[in-house]
């Protein structure tokens, strides 16, 4: 039995001693439980960017940034990416266990049942100027689903009704992403074909032309897409997952909550990095391919440029997802016979950065976004769609995080602050200022 005394944290403040419990997670992660800190001491903690703050306990995903470990519900990301399909991983994240054959068939069938979106939703596209960013459209489309399913607004509805919202979101997300692509291309929408599996259906809605009855998604592409979605499926308390938990904690409906997660993902420091990486590689190519020049730019503190696709808040050794993606990238390009010149630039950049003391000292390694864009492009997606594809993969993770938070009845998220503004002063009427 652990010695409880040894597990307490002693804090001395203004001559008084306080004890706080230490919490140890199932993988040995340690935290000081300061939930009673303000009540007992009058102090709060200050941790801008939450670099040291555990916002929740969670049993969904384990991540060890030093060792480069990522596991969902105990299963390694390497095993899941190699042996499972995306829907199995979605089921695992949501329900805690891998589905058996019957459970999988049920889940798959329920999702196929909800793939269509209300026809009126297409009118929303008419309001977007041509070329508007897919992520802005995705946020609007997801949040507008709440208008078609108003029961989802009731936080006290039955578990069955909540589950229906989850299935609807999982089912309609590929349809919406494919519609965004089609509208962007000026092509008619291709409706879901529920005889196809989740990923094939998405590729079919995206790349099939209405006039082309022969389109068959390439199995190599289906496999790569499954892997990419799995690699993005969850990543514990990152910016978008924390946003989902925070918005969901106010009991906002799940459509609005997920739309908020998509908004958080859009930023170039988070999921938006995959688009930025490809654009950066293109700029390096257009600039003559002088990789060292760009590495130097990234190191220059007077230059805001960063090497996109490098660095991670948690991974300080390597990003296990990047390892898998790099291999998938080689496989896909070889098997599709594509010779993408930016792949060469990417490899040179990785080599230059990994041997440069600036990157070595700061432990900046390629992250998941570094190679994913090259695969998306080989498959045929335009650069601006990349972050929407990240969102498609991350959806089950966001829902699992929301579900855990709401079933545990966690309180509304409401951080404190240290006020550093003006102290009280007298109001001076406008004419006298
Ligand atoms: N290029 C050049 N320098 C960098 C980079 C980079 N990509 N990333 C971090 N640094 C430097 C930074 O300037 C700082 O240097 P110093 O200590 O001299 O001030 C040091 O490394 C630590 O950086 P930080 O910004 O304090 O680290 P963070 O943990 O707050 O930020 C990050 C993590 C991912 C936002 C950052 O590494 C970054 O901006 N990377 C590029 C964007 C990117 O690829 N984002 C995708 C992340 S993975 C997908 C996801 O899960 O969202």
What does this structure look like?
By secondary structure, the protein is mostly helical. The protein has 3 domains: 48 residues, Rubrerythrin, domain 2, CATH 2.20.28; 214 residues, Citrate Synthase, domain 1 (Orthogonal Bundle), CATH 1.10.580.10; 107 residues, Cytochrome p450-Terp, domain 2, CATH 1.10.230.10. 51% of the residues lie in helices and 6% in strands. The protein has 18 helices and 6 strands. The strands form 2 sheets. A 3-stranded antiparallel sheet has the order 1-2-3. A hairpin with a 4-residue loop joins strand 4 and strand 5. Helix 10 packs antiparallel against helix 11. The chain is globular. The N terminus is likely disordered. It binds carboxymethyl coenzyme *A (CMC).
Structure, briefly:
This protein is mainly alpha-helical and about 425 residues long. The chain contains 18 helices and six strands. The chain has three domains: about 5-55, Rubrerythrin, domain 2; about 75-265 and about 385-405, Citrate Synthase, domain 1; about 275-380, Orthogonal Bundle (Cytochrome p450-Terp, domain 2).
Low-confidence stretches: 1-5
Please name the fourth-level CATH homologous superfamily of the largest domain. Answer: Citrate Synthase, domain 1
Tell me, rounded to a whole number, the average pLDDT. Answer: 94
The CATH architecture name of the largest domain reads Orthogonal Bundle
Rough outline = globular
Number of helices: 18
Spatial sequence of strands, sheet with the most strands? 1-2-3
CATH class term of the largest domain: Mainly Alpha
CA-CA gap between termini? 68 Å
